């Protein structure tokens, strides 16, 4: 048996309209509440941030006043800082040539006499001298750059990096050999790290 | 016909009014939402990151100022140490050239090392390109002396341990001729002594990097204190001063260069 709907068409339309009004009211109110909540939150956040910034500004002003009141000690400290930094930098980067001479002397064979020693540019030293024979000069040239040289100073084993023999002449009168060499050294090893 | 149209229009307006009335609450809610979005949400969303940045910057500045104030208070507590350290550093890196004191110090060191000083001169001439690049000024000193190899080495070591900074720029030594001078060398050195006039200003917001209580700084000051200080007073016998130009100082070294050098093969 078929159902018979006795509700008039007008009433049906009225009911549909009421449902539409009701649901749109609920949805819009819900959305409004969400937007209102979000707006309240961001308003609160903004106000809090502004208040915090204001507090920081007050603190900063107060701290600046305190710091400015100690300008005399600040100037002393800055002078001390600048000078001590400069001194530290100089001490750290200057080569200590006494180490170079000490290490050089250790490597001179007894058969070699040094006539002149000149500190040149680009970490080189020009040395002229006399050897009792060619062999003693050869030994000198071998020992200078030898990192395993017995008795080498600690940290200075490789201070002489290169040696070039520029000239060697045999003196017929006294049988000695005059030589002229150029030594390259590692400047960094002459700087005191501490 | 005209009557029909009027009736239709009246009906439509009435219908619209009814519809508006029925949806009054949703419409008001939507309008209020729009107002909130435009006046509160959008400006806040773009403004909050800026405010947070501002707060971050101010917080950092506040922390920096607090640290600085704490450091300054500590420095006030250790005022005597600060003054003592400043005096030590100022004696090592002089504020002025102080040439007589410098030359006397060089002369003293040379004589104490056993060297026989032949010549001592200085120059305060125009700085070279290399010197201009330095963060400090220098006094150039030229020293001519005679001594043995060990005395020269000792002299350099004593210079390196002297409290007023003296750096060796260049040096040369050669054997002295004559039997009386056996084992002696004639040495020529160009020395540079740095000096620095410091006039700092108090910059409220900038931090201070000096901490006199820092173990590294204490070790550094102890190292400076271990250097040898030469107390040059009015009673100290001054050397005879001779001012040279920088060129003369350079020439004094170059003059003694060996002339029989053969170029590398």
Automatic annotation (TrEMBL), chain A:
Sequence intervals crossing the membrane: 26-44
Domain of life: Bacteria
Protein name per UniProt: Fimbrial assembly protein
UniProt keyword annotations, A-Z: Membrane, Transmembrane, Transmembrane helix
UniProtKB/TrEMBL annotation, chain B:
UniProt feature, compositional bias: Acidic residues: 242-259
Transmembrane annotation, as ranges: 20-42
Keyword Transmembrane appears in the UniProt entry: yes
Residues of the signal peptide: none
Keywords: Membrane, Transmembrane, Transmembrane helix
Gene3D superfamilies tied to this protein: 3.30.70.60
Chain positions covered by the region annotation Disordered: 242-265
Biological process terms in GO annotation: type IV pilus assembly; type IV pilus-dependent motility
Pfam families linked to this entry: PilO
Protein name: Uncharacterized protein
Lineage of the organism: Bacteria, Katanobacteria
């Amino acid at each position: 048996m078929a159902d018979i709907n006795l509700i008039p068409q007008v009433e049906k339309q009225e009911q549909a309209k009421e449902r539409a009004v009701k649901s749109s009211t609920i949805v819009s109110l819900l959305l409004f509440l969400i937007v209102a909540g979000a707006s309240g939150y961001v308003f609160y956040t903004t106000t809090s941030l502004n208040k915090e910034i204001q507090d920081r500004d007050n603190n900063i002003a107060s701290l600046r006043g305190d710091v400015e009141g100690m300008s005399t000690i600040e100037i002393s400290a800055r002078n001390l800082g600048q000078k001590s930094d400069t001194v530290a930098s100089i001490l750290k980067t200057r080569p200590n040539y006494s180490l170079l001479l000490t290490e050089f002397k250790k490597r001179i064979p007894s058969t070699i006499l040094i006539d002149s020693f000149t500190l040149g540019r680009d970490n080189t030293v020009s040395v002229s001298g006399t050897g009792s024979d060619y062999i003693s000069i050869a030994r000198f040239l071998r020992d200078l750059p030898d990192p395993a040289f017995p008795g080498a100073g600690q940290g200075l084993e490789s201070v002489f990096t290169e040696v070039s023999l520029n000239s060697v002449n045999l003196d017929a009168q006294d049988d000695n050999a005059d030589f002229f060499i150029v030594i390259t050294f590692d400047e960094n090893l002459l700087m005191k790290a501490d | 016909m005209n009557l029909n149209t009027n009736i239709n229009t009246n009906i439509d307006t009435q219908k619209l009014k009814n519809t508006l009335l029925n949806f009054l609450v949703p419409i008001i809610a939507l309008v209020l939402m729009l107002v909130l979005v435009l006046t509160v949400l959008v400006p806040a969303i773009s403004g909050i990151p800026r405010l947070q940045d501002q707060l971050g910057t101010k917080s950092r500045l506040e922390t920096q100022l607090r640290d600085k104030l704490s450091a300054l208070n500590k420095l006030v507590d250790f005022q005597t140490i600060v003054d003592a350290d400043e005096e030590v550093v100022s004696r090592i890196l002089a504020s002025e050239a102080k040439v007589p004191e410098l030359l006397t110090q060089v002369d003293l060191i040379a004589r104490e090392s056993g060297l026989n000083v032949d010549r001592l001169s200085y120059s305060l001439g125009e700085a070279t390109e290399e010197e201009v690049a330095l963060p400090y000024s220098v006094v150039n000193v030229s020293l001519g002396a005679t001594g043995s190899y060990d005395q020269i080495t000792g002299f350099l070591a004593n210079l390196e341990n002297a409290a007023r900074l003296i750096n060796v720029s260049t040096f040369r030594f050669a054997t002295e001729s004559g039997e009386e001078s056996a084992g002696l060398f004639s040495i020529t050195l160009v020395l540079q002594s740095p000096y620095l006039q410091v006039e700092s200003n108090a910059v409220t917001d900038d931090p201070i990097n000096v901490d006199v209580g820092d173990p590294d700084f204490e070790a550094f000051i102890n190292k400076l204190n271990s250097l040898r200080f030469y107390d040059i007073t009015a009673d100290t016998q001054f050397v005879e001063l001779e001012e040279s130009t920088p060129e003369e100082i350079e020439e004094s070294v170059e003059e003694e260069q060996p002339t029989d050098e053969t170029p590398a093969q």
